[in-house]
Each structure stands twice: as C-alpha cells, then as structure tokens.
Amino acid sequence: MYKRCIPLVMSIGLLSGVLGVHSLWAQSTSPEAQRLQQLLESRDRQVKALLNAGPLTPERRARLKEQINGVVDFETMGRLALGPFWKNLTPAQRQEFIQVFSDIVREQSLADLDIYRAQVRYNRIEVRGDSARVLTTVTYKETPTQVVYLFTRRDGQWKAYDIIIDEVSTVDGYARSFQSVIRKRGFEALMNSLRKKQAQLTQSTSS
C-alpha cells in the first residue's frame, strides 16, 4: 500500500508545507480556518528557508527538526496511543513516555528529506469549536494519497494530534502496537523498546 511510503514522521513534515514543487490551497472562509492556513503557510516559509540555506549543519538540523515537529501535539497523540493504560501511569511515567516517544518521531522526521519534495494540495479546512480537520492530497512519486490531519486548539494554539493516511489513523496504528506490548509484557517492556530505539537514533545522528 502506498500509505507505507508516507509514515507519520514524513506526513508531519508535509503538514509543515515543506514543498519542493508547490502548494495549492482551496478557499477557506471562516476566520479560524484562515488562521490555521496562515500557520501552515508560515511554517512552509520557515522550513523551506532552512532547507535552502546550505548544508545541514547540526544547528540548522536542530532548527529544522523543531520547525517540522512544532505543530504536533505529542502529549495528546501519546495519550490516545496508550488508551486505557494511560490512566494507570504515574506523572513521571507519562512524562518519560511522551519525551521518548516525541524524541523518536523528531529524529526520524529528518531521515529522508526527499519526501518533502512531494506536491501537496490542501483541499479543505474544517473548523468546529476547538477541533479542526485539514484535508489534503499528497502526490509523491506520481502517486496521490489522501492525508487528513486532525487538530485541537490548546491554550489558543492549533496542534495536530492524528494523521490519517488513506483512511488509516496513525494514532490507531500506534495504539495497536503499544497496547499489545503492554498487555503481553507490561509498560516497562514498551519503554525499554522505545528507549533502545531512541538511543539508536541518537547514536546515528551524532556519528
């Protein structure tokens, strides 16, 4: 399935508007939809400026990673992924899980910059109260894919908490994987696996 070609970490970057081709916007009429559109356009300009600024130095890499992932609500995404197991965790466990989980996604978001040369069409922005959906069509290697981003507004800021690729929810995918490990081997086993992945990515980045 093509959706495997656009994993979470890549679709996050596409959400930021990192486009080597061009971005097409459908008409957005509500003030909140326009504000959300302006947020994404602003990130587009900032990320493209970093990509076009020359070699990816450690400093520029850190700034690019922050721009790509800055629109993501990792706390909500992680809480939904753990489902019923979240309520049984201590505050310290929750904090470490979100930190490790977000570190992994942030590091992986720079694994393949070529994906950001895809063409993205923002078809429609739907806003209802503190929730929003951004409906897009991503064309990568001449294959179009429907990608929907779900947003929530927290403290006046819009943050994405789920990405649906060809009608498959990214959060649901994480939920199946994470909750299966917890049911079979416990939360600490999940954390050990995530810590190992985090260490591998950190070592790869520093080498």
TrEMBL record:
This is ABC transporter substrate-binding protein. InterPro entries: MlaC/ttg2D, NTF2-like_dom_sf, Tgt2/MlaC_sf. It comes from the Bacteria. Gene3D superfamilies: Tgt2/MlaC. Pfam families: MlaC (PF05494).
